[in-house]
Amino acid sequence: MSKFTKTQLIEIFATLGNRLSTPDEELLALIETEKQYNAWFTPESVTEAIDAISRMLNKEDLSTWLNNYTIEGDRSIKKIGLILAGNIPLVGFHDVLCVLISGNFALIKTSSQDSRLIKHILQILADIEPYFAEQYSLVERLENFDAVIATGSNNSSRYFDYYFGKVPNIIRKNRNSIAVLTGDETTDQLSKLGHDIFDYFGLGCRSVSKLMVPKGYRFNTFFESIESFNPIIHHNKYNNNYGYNRSIYLVGNEQHLDNNFLLLKENPSLSSPLSVLFYEYYDDLQSVQDLLQQQSDNIQCIVSAAPIKSGSQVVDFGMSQQPALWDYADNVDTMGFLLGVHGS
């Protein structure tokens, strides 16, 4: 029998969202000190990740989300192994949330790049509802699990397939996000696109790494609209990447555009190096949709105001890093998977 009703779960996790909206002293200290362990985890990036979770955990969205599932009922508790990524702060929180709400037990292997934040948020949850203190374990090695959710690179996914292929699993690989421009965007829309490109330094799978633009598109307004993101160049690791890629293009006499903190280069690939944004011209939106459909397994989300029909999630400008509870990574229904495992 499930420990909690949907109504109780909504109340518990909405309370967690409220608590995160006003961080306690320990969390405030973590926000300031994470950069000592991971230079990419600046106070601004960590705060943004915590705020995104806080906004996600509201009563209305929790209710809308959970109403899609049958949670109550007799089910055996399964041990779910979680291998969390560490590319951006708290990127694995949603998987942990799904395991706990589904009534399963979470065996959590955090990334060495992001272990302290998730631990503290789980402590806050246990303070709200002590039952959850016994529903997870932070582990160095996954053992005695009934199912696995593992997030990593294309290389690590082969390792995951080998070790976890015999149990129910969700194994995630590299994905990238893309923006489709029509040339009719306002400066406000393009400025918001800057968040999709630069938030978390472009390290997330929901970070825009490529632009699709109509033939003849001129980038002047785009560059003017994102000028406010110029301070990113003062981050040492980002600056090193920018300087390296700029040198490569200059030495190789490779055509590119440069606004002194972002490099634009025409390239058919979806995945661009850090500090570089690839772009590609298109003839019409239908040809773009055909391309996006072909690449759907490699795309996390699409940023556009155009009427794009795609198998990937389409979001408005500035919203790629603001997923809702039901915006599942790789379009795989994590809750549905867990409830299926839970009921077996």
What's a concise summary of this model?
The chain has 344 residues and is an alpha/beta fold. 39% of the residues lie in helices and 16% in strands. It has two domains: 169 residues, 3-Layer(aba) Sandwich (Aldehyde Dehydrogenase, Chain A, domain 1), CATH 3.40.605.10; 140 residues, Aldehyde Dehydrogenase, Chain A, domain 2, CATH 3.40.309.
Keywords:
7-stranded mixed β-sheet, 39% helix, 344 residues, Aldehyde Dehydrogenase, Chain A, domain 1, globular
CATH class of the largest domain: Alpha Beta
Helix content: 25-40%
Strand content: 15-25%
What is the gyration radius calculated from CA atoms? 21 Å
* Separate helix tally: 12
- Would you tell me the overall average pLDDT? 93
Going by CATH, the architecture of the largest domain would be: 3-Layer(aba) Sandwich
- Name the CATH superfamily classification of the largest domain: Aldehyde Dehydrogenase, Chain A, domain 1
Report on this structure.
- The protein is an alpha/beta fold.
- It has two domains: 6-174, Aldehyde Dehydrogenase, Chain A, domain 1 (3-Layer(aba) Sandwich); 176-315, Aldehyde Dehydrogenase, Chain A, domain 2, CATH 3.40.309.10.
- The protein is built from twelve helices and twelve strands.
- The protein has helices at 6-21, 25-33, 43-56, 59-66, 93-101, 116-128, 154-164, 187-198, 220-225, 236-251, 285-294, 334-343, and strands at 79-83, 105-109, 136-138, 147-151, 169-172, 176-180, 208-214, 257-258, 263-266, 276-282, 299-303, 313-315.
- The strands form two sheets. It has a seven-stranded mixed β-sheet, sandwiched between helices.
- Strand 2 (105-109), helix 6 (116-128) and strand 3 form a beta-alpha-beta unit.
- Helix 1 (6-21) runs antiparallel to helix 4 (59-66) and helix 2 (25-33) packs antiparallel against helix 6 (116-128).
- The chain is globular, with a radius of gyration of 21 Å.
